[in-house]
Specification:
The chain is mainly alpha-helical. It has a single domain, classed as Growth Hormone, Chain: A. It is built from 22 helices and no strands.
Length: 462
């Protein structure tokens, strides 16, 4: 069977009238897919920069390692909708992208053995290819998941899925850190083990994706496609357009500092790989704890309410990092980061599913992801250029760029949030009640029981 026909055959399970069991089975497979993907993510996400550092990467090259792949990711997202439409199946487009993504870990792990010069540049090239395959499938995947998950439970489902994936990612981030610590004298072997594990886990993800059901697209939705150019023109004049621009700018300001937390810990603070892993995993642990907590509040109050709250939290994460280099303080800041970003990422992901018209959802998700990756890449590139020229704060250029990132995040939040509206019909709930209701009610109940018990005892004693 030819290569492209094989994947179309694997995606034949479509029907305009799915039964509940088929949908539930697909949602379970989606969670297994996410868990397997998170094994790969945990093994690699925080260790590509340390891998580059073993190759003597400069500060500018570390910035390029983040920015160049993300430029390609933005371009891949932009052209992905037309490619998936030509194939005629979202799943038929997703599966070959996942397979190619899995296989790109082979040349990445072989760089020290195949190339004796310009190793960092080869790493940038292969990571660019890898992330392009990974990102190209996101619009089709997002469109398929939006069709599978009912609107009223999107917060809870994606909260549960993200909680599981965050836990798995954190666990395997610890595992990768342990491998690097055990093989300190042979880091090449450590990275071979890590990247082979990443490739195998992505292949497991491919298996579970192949077993998912793809809902058929209704005929009226196929005929109502809007051109990408028209969608781009409405970026500043429509509600969803302003939301997309806001998220892109938040990711830009975040990634001005994003690539430099790793070298700050490993170079400036001289953390061991184990301590480095503990600090990074603190955010993952907080994400695991708060993802379903935020999901319930999104279904209750709407994703925009949560987005407004968390957008005012995330600017204070890098500012907190600049205040104190103490290990325990950085762990506290990472816990706060995990709490804030769990709500921000979950609410923004649900909002784009809610706000995008069904017939153009793939295109809106593609544009959303493209501009986010563009913001990430330009942010990282800007940070790489800017960091060496900023006056050092407390002796470090990295701390200066952290402060710049925090201040600009806050400016973006204050400028855009008032212009974006909720698209669901949800009750008006005060932020205080939304955040503290779980703590207030038990406290009030305990207070009432104690007071009532006190007066009953007094009455009895009389």
């Amino acid at each position: 069977m030819p290569f492209n026909r094989y994947f179309l055959h694997r995606s034949h399970d479509t029907s305009p009238h799915p039964n509940e069991e088929r949908v539930n089975r697909s949602l379970r497979n989606s969670i297994f897919d996410g868990a397997a993907y998170s094994v790969m993510l945990g093994l690699t996400q925080n260790y590509i920069t340390p891998y580059a550092i073993t190759m003597k990467a400069t500060t500018q090259q570390i910035g390029l390692l983040s920015s160049v792949p993300n430029f390609t990711m933005a371009a891949a997202q932009f052209v992905a909708p037309s490619l998936s439409e030509r194939i005629g199946s979202r799943k038929g487009f997703i599966l070959p992208m996942v397979l190619m993504h899995a296989l790109t870990w082979l040349p990445i792990l072989l760089i020290p053995y195949l190339f004796h010069t310009h190793q960092v540049w080869w790493l940038i090239a292969f990571m660019t290819l890898s992330t392009a395959f990974d990102s190209a499938l996101n619009p089709a995947w997002g469109s398929m998941m939006a069709d599978l998950v009912p609107v009223h439970m999107r917060g809870r489902f994606f909260g549960l899925r993200n909680r599981i994936t965050a836990f798995v990612s954190m666990a395997f981030s610890y595992a990768a850190g342990g491998i690097l610590q055990l093989l300190t004298g042979n880091t090449n072997l450590a990275f071979i083990i890590i990247f082979i594990g990443a490739m195998l886990s992505r292949l497991v993800s491919f298996y579970f994706l192949s077993r998912m059901y793809e809902p058929a697209t209704p005929a009226n939705e196929k005929q109502g496609h809007e051109s990408m150019l028209n969608i781009v023109r409405g970026l500043f004049s429509t509600n969803i357009g302003r939301f997309i621009v806001f998220c892109a700018l938040m990711n830009f300001t975040t990634n001005v500092a994003g690539p430099f937390f790793s070298p700050y810990m490993l170079v400036d603070l001289q953390f061991s790989y184990i301590v480095y892993t503990v600090v990074n995993s603190a955010a993952g642990l907080a994400t695991v704890g708060f993802m379903t907590w935020w999901g319930k509040r999104i279904d209750r109050a709407g994703s925009m309410k949560i987005l407004r709250i968390t957008s005012l939290f995330v600017p204070f994460v890098p500012i907190g990092w600049a205040l104190n280099p103490s290990l325990w303080w950085l762990i506290i800041m990472q816990i706060f980061s995990g709490f804030a970003w769990a709500g921000f990422q979950l609410s923004s992901g649900v909002f784009i599913f809610d706000a995008a018209p069904a017939q153009n959802r793939t295109r809106y998700i593609a544009l959303y992801n493209s501009l986010i990756f563009l913001g990430i890449s330009i942010g990282a590139l800007t940070g790489g250029v800017l960091a060496p020229h900023l006056p050092p704060f407390m002796g470090s250029h990295f701390l200066s760029i952290f402060i710049v990132s925090g201040v600009t995040r806050l400016a973006v939040s204050l400028s855009f949030l008032k212009h974006i509206k909720e698209v669901r019909k949800v009750p008006q709930i005060e932020a205080r009640e939304l955040l503290f209701s779980d703590f207030q009610r038990p406290w009030r109940n305990r207070a009432y029981v104690n007071v009532a018990g006190y007066f009953r005892r007094r009455k009895k004693n009389r």
